[in-house]
Design a protein that fits this description.
By secondary structure, this protein is α/β, with parallel strands linked by helices. The protein has 2 domains: 2-239, 3-Layer(aba) Sandwich (Aspartate Aminotransferase, domain 2), CATH 3.40.640; 242-349, Aspartate Aminotransferase, domain 1. It contains 10 helices and 12 strands. The chain has helices at residues 2-13, 21-37, 52-63, 76-87, 183-193, 205-213, 223-239, 242-262, 291-300, 327-349, and strands spanning 45-50, 69-73, 95-98, 115-119, 121-122, 127-128, 140-144, 161-164, 176-181, 266-268, 280-285, 316-320. The strands form 3 sheets. A 7-stranded mixed sheet has the order 1-9-8-7-4-2-3, with helices on both faces. A 3-stranded antiparallel sheet has the order 10-11-12. Strands 5-6 form a two-stranded antiparallel sheet. Strand 5 and strand 6 (127-128) form a beta hairpin. The longest helix is centred in the C-terminal third of the chain and has 23 residues, at 327-349. The N and C termini lie far apart (45 Å).
């Protein structure tokens, strides 16, 4: 439906300067809608810029981490932010707390760090972790929420930067980063930006904050991405907001994990039920069943992107359970996987 509405609105929006009213009104819809969805407190700001959540790691390295950060690493994406901080010549080596894929580490208070860097949902492994504030009032809590935002409930007050891209739960496209920033995070960015630290213009968080308050971005954004994001946020709000969206993903997750536990060939990769993601399910398959072959057959029949994360190297399916996916479609997907596996296994037996 959102794509159909984009087709109708395209003539008015596409190709329009991002400083003109039609696009600024679109940015206002996004910021206003996300503010309602996350129930942001007074003083918090919804800020956006180009480049995706990967770009925001570099934004944080220049504009939010003052000297040293702590990183919880439990998969590919959480490790990448730690790597960026470690490589920054103006920062001290970060504290890295790492656990094996399929688990998540616990943060620990450290007075020597000024930022705690967490991941709400590790997209590569299907592990979700609770988000709670820790440390002093001067230490920031930065949360990568790319695959969680919009599908997993969060108390935004426990964070200072809750950042994400819109291509997962928000059913849009990549290429943008969005961050809900606390007053403390905004103050930190302004203080670091006015110090002797050099900040590349593209990664200048203060410029992003100031432009977002004017309902625009520093650089030209992908207008179609903004439109689809605005439509998805308003769809969520119209149906009950964050609690409704999160419940919808949990329903899909219950379908998948129950199916896997009752199947002879599938099992949840994440051992502890409380750590299993409600938005990205990782399902291990019996060694006698090739996950690569199952995904190939599904793709040939129009069911795409069930492949495991390549660097994890497991015989595994990875399934998106985002709010835009109807739980009944998820049920049909599990039935389709079972159908394919039974026939492939029968062929192998013959």
């Amino acid at each position: 439906m959102a794509l159909e509405r984009l087709e109708g609105a395209g003539g008015r929006l596409m190709g329009t300067s991002h400083r003109q009213p039609p696009v600024r009104q679109l940015v206002h819809r996004v910021r206003e809608g996300l503010g309602q969805l996350f129930d942001i407190p007074d003083g918090y700001e919804v800020v956006l810029g180009n480049g995706g959540a990967t770009c925001f790691w570099d934004v944080a390295v220049y504009s939010l981490i003052e000297r040293r950060s702590q990183h919880l690493v439990f998969g590919e994406f959480s490790s990448k932010f730690a790597k960026e901080a470690k490589g920054a010549p103006h920062l001290d080596a970060p504290e890295v707390i790492e656990t094996p894929p399929g688990t998540h580490p616990e943060p620990r208070e450290n007075p020597e760090v000024d930022c705690y860097c967490m991941t709400h949902n590790e997209t590569s492994t299907g592990v979700a972790m609770p988000i709670e504030r820790l440390g002093s009032s001067e230490q920031l809590v930065l949360v990568d929420a790319t695959s969680a935002a919009g599908g997993v409930e969060v108390d935004i007050r426990a964070t200072d930067a809750y950042y994400f891209s819109p291509q997962k739960c928000f059913a849009s496209e990549g290429g943008l980063w969005l961050a809900v920033l606390s007053p403390l995070a905004q103050e930190r960015a302004r203080r670091l930006g006015s110090s002797s630290r050099w900040v590349p213009g593209f990664l200048d968080l203060v410029a992003a904050i100031d432009n977002s308050k004017l309902n625009q971005t520093v650089n030209t954004p992908a207008v179609a991405t903004l439109f689809l994001l605005a439509e998805q946020v308003e769809w969520m709000l119209d149906h009950g907001g964050m609690s409704w969206a999160a419940a919808r993903s949990r329903q899909s997750a219950e379908i998948v994990y129950t199916w896997a536990q009752q199947s002879w060939f599938a099992s949840p990769f994440v051992a502890r039920p409380e750590d299993r993601s409600p938005v990205v399910a990782t399902i291990d398959l019996d060694p006698r069943v090739s996950a690569e072959e199952v995904s190939r057959v599904l793709r040939a029949n129009g069911i795409v992107d069930t492949d495991s994360y390549r660097k994890l190297g497991r015989n595994q399916l990875r399934l998106g359970l985002f709010p835009a996916v109807d739980p009944e479609d998820v049920r049909h997907l599990t039935e389709a996987i079972s159908w394919v596996v039974e026939r492939l296994h029968h062929e192998d037996s013959d």
